[in-house]
Structure to design on (90 residues):
């Protein structure tokens, strides 16, 4: 049975701050040992919990990788605002 090494804990404050400088770009934040753990964190990101406030300012996706499930996060608030403005003008 292959062994896996746990990734160091993510610095979510630094991730959230750094992502604000690159709207729309998904970057890996942390690899979780189970898909359930990653999914729970993805929902927390989208809900705006902790450093990812307000709700829907960030989007999160998960992908299976060797050693677990990786959480990818993007800051999407400016893109959502642009879409809303475009819809209002149409």
């Amino acid at each position: 049975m292959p062994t896996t090494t746990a990734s160091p804990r993510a610095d979510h404050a630094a991730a959230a701050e750094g992502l604000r400088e690159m709207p729309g770009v998904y970057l890996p934040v942390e690899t979780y040992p189970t898909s359930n753990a990653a999914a729970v964190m993805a929902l927390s990101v989208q809900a705006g919990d902790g450093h990812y406030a307000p709700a829907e300012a960030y989007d999160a996706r998960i992908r299976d990788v060797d050693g677990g499930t990786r959480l990818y996060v993007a800051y999407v608030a400016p893109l959502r605002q642009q879409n809303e403005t475009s819809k209002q003008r149409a």
Notes: The longest helix spans residues 35-47. Helices lie at 12-19, 35-47, 77-89. The chain has three helices and three strands. The radius of gyration is 15 Å.
